[in-house]
Design goal:
Blueprint: E1 6-13, E2 17-18, E3 21-22, E4 31-38, E5 45-50, H1 54-62, H2 76-92, E6 107-111, E7 114-118, E8 125-127, E9 134-137, E10 153-156, E11 164-171, E12 178-186, E13 192-201, E14 210-212, E15 215-220, H3 228-236, E16 254-259, E17 267-270, E18 280-286, E19 289-296, E20 320-327, E21 333-339, E22 342-347, E23 360-366, E24 377-382, E25 386-394
Antiparallel strand pairs: 1-4, 2-3, 4-5, 6-7, 7-8, 8-9, 10-11, 11-12, 12-13, 14-15, 15-16, 16-17, 18-19, 19-20, 20-21, 22-23, 23-24, 24-25
């Protein structure tokens, strides 16, 4: 379209086999960053590069699959080696040293002079924004205390003249019930202006966060079970983490509101039904009233690689987009489903997240709920109107997550209509 200028960047697994070894799940595939540049004259230019992580470089130099994946990609030789290491660790009382790959394939972000590729359990990598060449590991000037960066981030424009990048990261030992959740805020110069490591009881998974006035918001999902026995099986290679990644309806499903200043205890609100979620849509707070949207994965949800196409069993457990209204004072919570389509990756105006009244959400979807897949539709939902305010665009082929590009950049946090982009 005329007027569309800039570069659209996406990261994801760039292959599903490595040196003749088929991967058990695409999440184990080496990250490939793709860039579409729009000069504004109707043309478009494409560029892509693999993220040259330490593990990838070593495997390419030797022509072998050397590092197992965290979603179960492993060779028979690696199983034998890692099983022996686990047995020795158990007898010595020490943790085994298992070599997992860092595919750096989950997300990519540009902030200040940083262009970063991420994988949520490993250190991020810095890339050259023009060539996409890999520059090396980047711990943000040693401010990443957990030595990793979560899948998703938020941009806080509550002060439009001084926006902040808000990042999250998570780590948990199978021997402990508490998890460490690190949330940092960076200014445009990539200087850490606020950072805190929260101890969250019972948190077994973290993928996304929301920001509202005074609080960071996360969801404690009944998604992953982990104990010492399960950890030993995963580390030895006899089973993959994906075996434990499924909805467990008897575990807590809660929204947790973490005070940004750390001056009070977190507010914990039980959800009306158990579900797993990956991504928040719109979210804001007005007094004690919080409104947030998300895609809820219920029923028999698990991480089966369905049709060798999608990352979970979306046909059996389709994502349903809905709205939660929460009273922070009383803990009361209400839910309403807003759209019938099977969907994932809800997104909203990136510079109005947390702003009161933000209402538009955009999703990749299958607008045939009885099928679940494939995703060929972009659905726009006004959360104040639900199905009455939806619009659907059918693509000519398969689609992935959509992104809303505001017409006025950062200025769009306070200027123009929310859906002008």
């Amino acid at each position: 379209p005329a007027g569309l200028k800039g570069t659209f960047i996406r990261n994801g697994p760039g292959l599903i086999e490595k040196h003749g070894h088929a991967l058990a799940h695409p999440i184990d595939g080496d990250g490939m960053v793709c860039a579409l540049t729009f000069p504004g004259d109707g043309n478009v230019h494409f560029k892509n590069r693999f993220v040259e992580t330490r593990e990838r470089l070593e495997e390419e130099s030797q022509g072998k699959f050397l590092y197992r994946g965290q979603m179960g990609s492993i060779t028979e030789d690696q199983i034998a080696c890692d099983s022996k290491a686990v047995q020795q660790a158990i007898s010595s009382g020490k943790l085994p040293k298992i070599k997992f790959r860092n595919p750096s394939n989950t997300n990519v972000l540009h902030w200040g002079d940083k262009f970063i590729s991420t994988y949520e359990t490993k250190i991020p990598y810095s890339l050259d924004p023009l060539t996409l060449n890999t520059l090396g590991e980047d711990d943000f000037k040693k401010t990443l205390k957990l030595k990793r960066l979560g899948a998703h981030f938020r941009i806080d424009t509550s002060d439009v003249d001084d926006p902040k990048l808000v990042t999250g990261a998570f780590v948990r030992s199978p021997l402990k019930s508490n998890a460490a959740l690190e949330i940092n805020e960076y200014n445009w110069k990539m200087e850490l202006v606020k950072g805190k490591v929260f101890e969250v009881e019972g948190l077994t998974y973290f993928h996304d966060l929301a920001i509202i006035d005074g609080y960071y918001v996360i969801h404690k999902s009944p998604f992953v079970t982990m104990n010492a026995k399960q950890a030993a099986a995963i580390l030895s290679g006899t089973t993959g983490p994906d075996f434990n990644m499924k909805l467990n309806k008897n575990l807590p499903s809660q929204f947790i509101f973490l005070p940004k200043d750390g001056s009070s205890e977190p507010i914990i609100v039980d959800t009306p039904f158990p579900f797993h979620m990956y991504h928040f849509g719109t979210c804001y707070r007005e007094g004690d009233h919080v409104v947030l949207t998300t895609t809820a994965l219920t029923g028999d949800f698990d991480m089966s690689w369905e049709w060798k196409y999608w990352l979970s069993n979306m046909c059996k457990a389709p994502g349903k987009f809905g709205r939660f209204d929460i009273n922070l004072k009383s803990g009361a919570i209400e839910y309403s489903q807003l759209d019938p389509a099977s969907n994932e990756f809800p997104c909203s105006h990136p510079y109005r997240h947390g702003h009161i009244g933000t209402k538009y959400n955009y999703m990749m979807a299958c607008d045939e709920p009885e099928r679940g897949l494939p995703f060929m539709d972009v659905v726009k939902v006004n959360m104040d109107e639900g199905a009455a305010g939806r619009r659907v665009w059918r693509a000519d082929g398969l689609i992935t997550e959509c992104v809303f590009a505001p017409r006025a950049g950062f200025d769009a946090a306070t200027q123009l209509d929310e859906d002008d982009g």
